[in-house]
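We were asked to recover a plausible sequence for a given structure. The inputs and outputs are reproduced exactly as logged, with field labels preserved.

PROBLEM: sequence recovery
POSITIONS: 301
GIVEN STRUCTURE:
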């Protein structure tokens, strides 16, 4: 099938399935889990289920919007990368115009729902997430290796949005959740960057894994950022957001992360990077679940 940039969407079930793939529903669900944790940690004893529902719907639509814009902007680069060439847009199962249209519609609906049903602050944070991801992070990926740091900002905003949805202000608790998610993303994505370094090279992206052939620069940053993640993981306990059970889970989890990061730096193998990446996927839900189960209701702010 030839590339037809003017195409909107192929009719029928095939086009619908392609649209769902464009939405990255699995990644969106992961984002919404962090939003739930932020909302729960900020909620009083009387839980507001309706407010949570509106928060998740609006946040989910905005996450989908960011993914739609990102894939529409990078379609020609995704075509040359093995990891991404089967996505709906580079495989021509969906037109680029459809990708942009979906991004615009979901962004408007998500922001409007958060503004009307939740609060203005959460809606603004949601819009900031889309702008940072699509208009800042996406083009930076081809300009500088600092794109990973910038991309960590929109990735860390959903739990903060959950917090502001419940309390209508940022507060220390919201910032602690934002910081935890920000530093978690760095070793997570740096390990991914090494796993797919050849793909990123073909796509012309500026990734830390491509700075030197040995990968030492990337491995050193995985090691350093894992230590920083360990430090910020203690903050929720120190500031009274969660208790001793959370602290124990966080310390054990970061110890495993540090060991895997050390092994990656020592061996430099793709398998070691895969282990860091997979453990990072387990690390986040473990720590967030422990935090939610061990939250301190006396925490204010």
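RECOVERED SEQUENCE:
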């Amino acid at each position: 099938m030839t590339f037809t940039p003017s195409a909107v969407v192929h009719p029928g079930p095939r086009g619908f399935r392609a649209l769902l793939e464009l939405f990255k529903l699995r990644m969106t669900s992961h984002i919404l889990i962090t939003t739930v944790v932020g909302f729960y940690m900020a909620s009083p004893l009387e839980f507001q289920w309706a407010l949570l529902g509106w928060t998740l719907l609006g946040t989910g639509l905005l996450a989908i919007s960011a993914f739609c814009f990102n894939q529409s902007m990078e379609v020609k680069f995704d075509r040359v990368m093995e990891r991404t060439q089967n996505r709906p847009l580079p495989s021509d199962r969906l037109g680029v115009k459809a990708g942009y249209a979906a991004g615009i519609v979901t962004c408007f609906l998500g922001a409007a729902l958060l503004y009307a049903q939740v609060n203005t602050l959460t809606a603004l944070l949601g819009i900031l997430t889309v702008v940072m991801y699509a208009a800042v992070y996406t083009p930076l990926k081809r300009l500088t290796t600092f794109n990973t740091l910038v991309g960590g900002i929109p990735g860390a905003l959903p739990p903060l949005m959950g917090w502001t949805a419940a309390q209508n202000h940022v507060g220390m608790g919201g910032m602690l959740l934002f910081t935890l998610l920000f530093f978690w993303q760095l070793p997570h994505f740096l390990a991914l960057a090494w796993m797919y370094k050849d793909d990123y090279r073909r796509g012309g992206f500026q990734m830390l894994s491509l700075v030197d052939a040995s990968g030492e620069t990337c491995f050193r940053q995985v090691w350093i950022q894992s230590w920083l993640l360990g430090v910020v993981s203690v903050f929720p306990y120190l500031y009274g957001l969660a208790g001793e059970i959370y602290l124990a889970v966080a310390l054990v989890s970061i110890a495993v992360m540090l060991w895997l990061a050390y092994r990656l730096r020592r061996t430099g193998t793709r398998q070691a990077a895969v282990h860091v990446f997979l453990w990072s996927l387990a690390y986040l839900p473990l720590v967030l679940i422990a935090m939610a189960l061990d939250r301190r209701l006396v925490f204010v702010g």
